[in-house]
Specification:
Order of helices and strands: EHEHEHEHEHEHHEEEHEH
CATH architecture: Alpha-Beta Barrel
CATH class: Alpha Beta
Low-confidence stretches: none
Strand order of the largest sheet: 1-2-3-4-5-6-7-10
Shape: globular
Structural class: alpha/beta
CATH superfamily: Divalent-metal-dependent TIM barrel enzymes
Mean pLDDT: 96
Helix content: 40-55%
Largest sheet: 8 strands, parallel, barrel
Oligomer: single chain
């Protein structure tokens, strides 16, 4: 697995490259704007040029970069005004990916807010089809993130994500980002080798492993099946170290990027990146 983290771009998007190298990342994930504000960001040619030049000079794997969309976006909001704002903001996220040359856009499917899961899935499909039509480019891959199922969030069953993939007009542009914390909290056990084999087998049977284009590498602070989304540093949560050893050594995911989204700041990121690289290198369980 290609090991990275969600890094800051404070002070300029090009700083994401520097920050990633400082942490020991092989690739990275970023927000392209303040994730808690609707205010949009349009990059200048100078900013784009700096970002691209920093990447070229680095050892970062640019083909495995990802953007995570704003947390405000809800592609199945029952409120018409919020839905339209979400669709517009999501399109702008995709356009920023194009401008920066980042191939993957990771997003939470959406929250139906009491309208029901089937309704929510249909609305997500409509939103994605609208964005794909307006984007008019196949250079961005949209990655549905597995969720813990907290509240009315969709995407906590693999089959829900499959329904969304089957409901879009360009399924070749849709993939999956597997969040280890989220699937564990959603009720997919991965703690022991037999559980890991069973759950990865489920991923393969539902999607095919070729649809998995990223992982979020997070231990889980909450209990198995709790549907509570609480990230923890690697090996310090309820999942434990064994699963991450299995994942790091799984040849099926050798060229897939995995991004840490753990608490604790730079020191925690550095430590966990070193831990994951160590697990990847050791060939015994």
């Amino acid at each position: 697995m290609i090991i990275g983290a969600h890094v800051s771009m404070a002070g300029g998007v090009e700083n994401a490259v520097t920050n990633a190298q400082h942490l020991g990342c092989e690739t990275f994930q970023i927000f392209t704007k303040n994730q808690n504000q609707w205010k949009e960001k349009e990059y200048t040619e100078t900013e784009i040029g700096l970002f691209r030049s920093y990447l070229v000079k680095s050892a970062i794997n640019a083909n495995r970069l990802a953007v995570h969309d704003s947390y405000l976006i809800n592609l199945c909001s029952p409120a018409t005004d919020l839905l339209e704002k979400s669709q517009h903001a999501f399109l702008q996220e995709a356009k920023r990916c194009l401008a920066l040359g980042i191939p993957n856009l990771i997003f939470h499917p959406g929250s139906h807010i009491g309208k029901g899961e089937e309704w929510g899935i249909q609305m997500i499909c409509k939103s994605l089809n609208l964005v794909l039509e307006k984007l008019e480019s196949d250079q961005v891959r949209f990655l549905l993130e597995t969720t813990a199922g907290q509240g009315s969030n969709l995407g906590y069953h693999f089959e829900q994500l499959l329904q969304i993939m089957e409901g879009v007009t360009h399924p070749e542009q849709i993939g999956i980002c597997v969040d280890t914390c989220h699937i564990f909290a959603a009720g997919y056990d991965i703690r022991q080798e037999e559980n890991y084999i069973q759950t990865t087998g489920k991923l393969e049977s539902v999607f095919g492993l070729d649809k998995i284009h990223a992982f979020h590498l997070n231990d889980c602070k909450s209990e198995f099946g709790s549907r509570v989304d609480r990230h923890e540093t690697i090996g310090q949560g309820k999942i434990g170290l064994k699963m991450f050893r299995l994942l790091m050594q799984d040849a099926r995911f050798e060229y897939i990027p995995g991004y840490l989204e753990i608490p604790g700041g730079d020191d925690a990121f550095k430590k966990d990146i070193e831990t994951l690289k160590g697990l990847r290198a050791k060939k015994t369980y």
